Predict the structure.
Amino acid sequence: MSMLTARLLRAEKRLFYIRLEKFLAEFISFFAGYHVVASEPHYFLETDSYCLNGKIDCILGDSREDSPLKGSLAIVDFKATRMPKLSGCFTGEGLSDFQIPAYLRLAEAALKQEVHSTLFFSIRDAKAEVWFGAIQNVLSRGNIPKKAEDCVTRTADVFMNIMSEFDDKTKRFAKEVSYGAFPFSPPYSEQCQGCIYNKVCRILYKIK
């Protein structure tokens, strides 16, 4: 770490703590009564033709006595700032972000429990972006999403269509890998930008 970087970090130390405190207060207000099932677990799901694997930031269990979903799971993926919106990731052109569906499949297969809530949570903005299910702030009683009709439950057609498309595209991706339709290790990152599977493949590049 350079001297300049160290000075900048020290200068923003107070701001960092303020943001962290705000984030924790907001997060706890939505998940009071839940318990931590797993933190950054690495799960694998093997099928006949492919293997899913992923590390999930946080899995919570609903322990609330008065909850109709007691015993169910909630998946939280933390983001620094930007959070993908469901409306922008599942359109007439199909599913373009596979992270939440993949985590749901992995968690349910590993833990043998249903996931009823999945969401992104911004650490910097202390806000949640819910994809499936709903969460409620125990202090304000406000819900996310605000309108009941905007809540995507497990029985909703949108949920079924998203998970079905995720499964279909994952199988097709595995098949095309086995056929050698594209290189296993592209020599440069730009080669991935136009690929329709770049969101499910998620190859990481290291700068050396």
Remarks:
- The chain has one domain: 13-201.
- Helices lie at 3-11, 13-31, 86-89, 99-111, 157-179, 190-193, 198-201.
